[in-house]
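Example 4.3 (complexes with small molecules)
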Amino acid sequence: MSKKILVVAGDGIGPEIVAEALKVLQALQADGSIDISLEEGLIGGAAYDAVGDPLPEETLAAAKASDAVLLGAVGGPKWEPLHISKRPEKGLLGMRAGLGLFANLRPAILYPQLAGASTLKPEIVSGLDIMIVRELTGGIYFGQPRGIETLPSGERRGFNTLVYTESEVERICRVAYDIAMKRGKKVCSVDKANVLESTEMWREVAIKTAADYPEIELSHLYVDNASMQLVRAPKQFDVMVTTNMFGDILSDCAAMLTGSIGMLPSASLNAEGQGMYEPIHGSAPDIAGRGVANPLATILSVAMMLRYSLDAAGAADRIEAAVSKVLDQGLRTGDIMSEGMRQVGTVEMGDAVVAALAGE
Ligand code: NAD
Ligand code: IPM
Ligand code: MN
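Answer. The structure with 3-isopropylmalic acid bound is encoded below.
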């Protein structure tokens, strides 16, 4: 049965990197490895410009009717002056909430060829393989009340609410523990339980839920220490599970261990197994339109899509092997460039992955 994929490229470098990921999907379709149908939709600033809404109803409806969504990135300076309800980021958050994509998997894996591209010493990062499990539809991103109000004094007050229910914490912990059972069986839950009640409860629920997983070695860190440990000795971690905002910050930090944020893919899953797949980086307005963005995070997101939503783990392995081969060939976009390597642009990198897939 053909699988339906909705493609929402978004803004900035979004269309540039998605075009390369689509080449990879189409190559796999052409050689008979997968059976897919592609549909395109509007999201973010591009959608606002076209129809006045960063998440048009048709896009969310098409996403709900798809087996998977491939997203580039949203946002940019052009839309910053808009009211928060109309900003591109609202489109992305609306998609996550609308599809119930509560589990965000952000693997940080160092390709050995890039050990020299990290800002950290090669011995600190070599062999790195961490899975960050980020809660994606709760916490301070969605908590009520929120807003900006004017006090009687005339001064303004901005406020957000960090809130979690026990069931929200339990289900994301179960995702992390299930993943860890297939890996190193170690989970570090990251919170701020020393200060914030919501995460004091998070820690209690993490411990209680772990009772069903006697083989899991569960540890806990406060987020400030966790961020320090990530750059001090990242290989101590196997799976990390944390809140929406802490996961956002820690995954950008972990990205740098792998050489560049242009290398980190992600999967966002709901309880029904539907998923949205996107690089963890943004629309990179500073390099957009120049053909220099690294498409590998998006291409690796396609591999995650094949593995988690399309039941095509073999094709996913082939994409990852093709990426490794291209790195072996010495091809590098600017963000992962190092001495002796050959610098290429976005399109050349995408073409090289497609050629490697075909065994050329
Ligand atoms: P960013 O991730 O877009 O860029 C941070 C830095 O990393 C920039 O220097 C950029 O050039 C570089 N970079 C990012 N992706 C790259 C790639 N593939 N290849 C090479 N270099 C890359 O973060 P930002 O600058 O803080 O945000 C820019 C816009 O993107 C904002 O509007 C923000 O809200 C949005 N954003 C969107 C997403 C998303 O769509 N998932 C994620 C993060 C930020
Ligand atoms: C990410 C981004 C988003 C987030 C923004 C653009 C809403 O930073 O996907 O990491 O904060 O989740
Ligand atoms: Mn982020």
